[in-house]
Amino acid sequence: MKSVLIVMGSENDYSKVEPAFKVLKDYKIPFKVSVASAHRSPSRAVELAKNARSDGHAVIIAAAGAANHLGGAMAANSTLPVIGLPLEVGGLGGMDALLSTVQMPGGVPIAGVGINAAKNAGLIAASIISNLDENLAKALDEERIVLGQKVVEADARVQKKLSEL
What we know:
Number of strands: 5
Low-confidence stretches: none
Distance between the termini: 53 Å
Shape: globular
CATH topology of the largest domain: Rossmann fold
Radius of gyration: 18 Å
Structural class: alpha/beta
Largest sheet: 5 strands, parallel
Order of helices and strands: EHEHEHEHEHH
Helix content: 40-55%
Mean pLDDT: 96
CATH architecture of the largest domain: 3-Layer(aba) Sandwich
CATH class of the largest domain: Alpha Beta
């Protein structure tokens, strides 16, 4: 199975990105985590992106806050799918990181998730890899069925409460 490369802009991002690790681990998808900064270690970021495909990765998750150019650096140096994970850092509530992630020029795409939405980043990576792995695709389908059942159960509880008014 192909793996996921997760690049964090800082060691301090670990706890915010951890839900992505858990998703990938739950689905038994191998992943590698590295710290690199588009600003403080640009050559390291470029090297990780350029070598990602030959290192066996199928997807890159780029997680950073503030002026988040990490996803752009990854996408500019690899044609693998890049998922930009904007993180809340500083006083702008993550909006700066979100806008830096999604405002990419034509021809250098990044798939973006919400601020601190590491779980969704992991699930998108799993979905991409599921195109190459039928068992993983089935596991993701089964999880969606469970999520749908939970909604039906929640609706039944709400209807019961309404009938008791």
